[in-house]
Known about the structure:
By secondary structure, the chain is mostly helical. It has helices spanning 13-39, 47-54, 57-84, 89-116.
Amino acid sequence: MAEEYRSFERGGTGWFLQRVTAAFLVVVLAFHFFNLHFLNHAYEVTFAGTEARMSDVGYFATMWLFLVTATFHGVNGVYNALINQGLTGTTKRVVQVVLGVAGLLLIVQGTRVAMAMSTLI
């Protein structure tokens, strides 16, 4: 029988960060859905309302952390899924760099959009 390979070792840093980011995302996603889908309906969400929410330091920080956490969680999950499929050697390193750069670009662009939607800066 083939030996099962796992990219996450139980109790390791990667394993721990994937679980912590998942827990954070569940809480923030619930907040997001409650705030923007139950308190306000889609037709009530306007650019002016978005600007007002993003101009609140607490909301801005929460949404920025949501962006960073979701990016890390997604990129790390995809990378480790590929590792579990047997990715090794040069291909593994190329995928690692491409996903890392894509994650950083996503965070930079998301930060630029968040800053443009707020009056904080």
